[in-house]
Amino acid sequence: MDKQRDFVLRTIEERGVKFVRLWFTDVVGTLKSVAIAPAEVEGAFNEGIGFDGSAIEGLSRTYESDLLAFPDPQTFQTLPWRGDIDPTARMFCDITTPDGEPAVSDPRNVLKRTLARAADRGFTFYTHPEIEFYLLKSSKYGEEGPIPVDSAGYFDNVPGGTAHDFRRRSVRMLEDLGISVEFSHHEAGPGQNEIDLRYADALTTADNIMTFRTVIKEVAIEQGVYATFMPKPFSDKPGSGMHTHLSLFEGDANAFYEPGAQYQLSKIGRQFIAGLLRHANEISAVTNQFVNSYKRLWGGGEAPSFICWGHNNRSALVRVPLYKPNKGQSARVEYRAIDSAANPYLAFSLLLAAGLKGIEEGYELPAEAEDNVWTLSDSERRALGYDPLPASLDHAIEYMERSELVAETLGEEVFSFVLANKRAEWREYRTQVTPYELQRNLEIL
């Protein structure tokens, strides 16, 4: 760590960095930033930077508000969109109390704590997100709603189009930040794009997702458009998900891989999926944390609505991707409910905790879904045991508030704050009178 600190201090001097942004997230997953001068960085490493945690969503209570942000030197990167004028760098921070204890309400610490639990069992947790978002002409919208930048569709090539240039610029910027990109393409909705990050350990991936959102927003501003990670900005177009591939490794060996087993999926892999399925409803208020998230889950466009798994079945909640011969290390499962607006630190914590619970309790994996689940009738789905995901945020809250797994994983303070925050959102939402109601009812009632 001392070597990494020395590297950071040397790089700041050699590159003439003028500002260093210290980044962390609140419990909802909003990125927070404080800029310090280069001369303050060494002190920040040793003593942290003090701030009022009670002013940040869910980080601390008013009577214990003093917190310290300690920059993690492993996350140091210069920010390419700042250019050569006043070069700026960033580091993610770990939040502690004044007596040096990790702040229990720091989302990054929640994930570190869950990863430590997995490490005690010999597991390293890897994630690989496919992040969807919409590009709009503006953040403003009129009677017709938001306006996408193009009318293209899935995998379309748009010569000279905004999305084409946008993805190229974004990918270059991500690579400059040390974030490897696997794929990028136009998605099914007009103005909708997807960029897939290469797999990494879950903490690195969560940091990368927070950086990714910032990069996408910055490139959009640069190109005169607006990027949104809202799960369902258009009622009649696909929502934006963040399908995430998950795997556990024991040392260098993929714990999900077993040659000769069905789909080459090990007992550990099957139990992990069983854990995801059994606890899917309980974790939904975090993996799908907004009122709008449930418009995506129940609005079609390949979003999963029912709790089941399948081999290469894109209508299932959990998918076991097609096995590639001689690539056992790539064995993984894909969780398809999580959306692009989730707090990645908390969402990954709960996905891991649910999977580990399946392994620890020896959950049995139910039969796989071979049919297109969306085309089955309700009675057929009931007969097959495919329970629905929560239909709305208030349903998700009801599941979460009864969940020992979520309470234990998040810790009392984060658990209580997430519930309070989501209840407040639901109260505000249910008092709204929407254009749909006015158009449908005003004249005839």
Automatic annotation (TrEMBL):
One of its GO terms (biological process) is glutamine biosynthetic process. The keyword Signal does not apply. Transmembrane segments: none annotated. ATP binds at E182, H245, L246, S247, R314. InterPro entries: Gln_synt_N, Gln_synt_N_sf, Gln_synth/guanido_kin_cat_dom, Gln_synth_cat_dom, Gln_synth_gly_rich_site, Gln_synth_I. One of its GO terms (molecular function) is ATP binding. Its cofactor is Mg(2+). Keywords: ATP-binding, Ligase, Magnesium, Metal-binding, Nucleotide-binding. SUPFAM superfamilies: Glutamine synthetase, N-terminal domain (SSF54368), Glutamine synthetase/guanido kinase (SSF55931). L-glutamate binds at R296, E302, R314, R336. The keyword ATP-binding applies. Binds 2 Mg(2+) ions per subunit. Its EC number is 6.3.1.2. It holds the Pfam family Gln-synt_C. Residues 107-445 form the GS catalytic domain. Residues 15-100 form the GS beta-grasp domain. Mg(2+) binds at E130, E132, E187, E194, H243, E334. Belongs to the glutamine synthetase family. This is Type I glutamate--ammonia ligase. It comes from Agromyces agglutinans. The gene is glnA.
